[in-house]
Amino acid sequence: MNRQAINFQQKLALFAEPWQPRVVAEMNDYQFKLVRLAGDFVWHAHADTDEVFIVLEGRLRIDFRDGAVELAAGEMFVVPKGVEHKPFADGEAKVLLVEPRGVVNTGDAASERTARNDVWV
């Protein structure tokens, strides 16, 4: 059993690429993923799971077809399963995602932004 604290800043310093989530921990079937977000993402949905966005640094806007939610550092939002959304960060946002193991970052919309899955840092 690993009894060492996970330091988000130390983990984030290990990669610079935006839109490439890195797994830092697992709890049951859920993964905790750190990601750097910058600019626009793609419209997508996750048919089988909710997705949690926790903003650690910066600002994040999550667009929906009927509006948007804006998040600052220290805030979180749960996107319900099946809801189409598109994250956007003006500048860089550092975010912690919580989702089941195996969830692809672009959900049902494969694109050049689709990241390799289950990459640990």
From the structure above, extract its key features:
121 residues, mainly beta, Jelly Rolls, 7-stranded antiparallel β-sheet, 1 helix, 7 strands, 4% helix
Low-confidence stretches: none
The CATH H-level superfamily of the domain at 18-100 is Jelly Rolls
Would you report the number of β strands?
7
**Mean of residue pLDDT?**
95
Q: How is the topology of this model organized?
A:
Blueprint lengths: L7 H5 L9 E6 L2 E11 L10 E7 L1 E6 L2 E6 L3 E4 L5 E16 L21
Antiparallel strand pairs: 1-2, 2-7, 3-6, 3-7, 4-5, 4-7
Pfam families: Cupin_2
Protein name: Cupin domain-containing protein
Note down, in words, how this protein is organized.
By secondary structure, the chain is mostly beta strands. The protein has a domain at 18-100: Jelly Rolls, CATH 2.60.120.10. It contains 1 helix and 7 strands. Strands 1, 2, 3, 4, 5, 6 and 7 form a 7-stranded antiparallel sheet that branches. The model has no long low-confidence stretch (mean pLDDT 95).
What's this, in brief?
The chain is mainly beta and 121 residues long. Helices cover 4% and strands 46% of the residues.
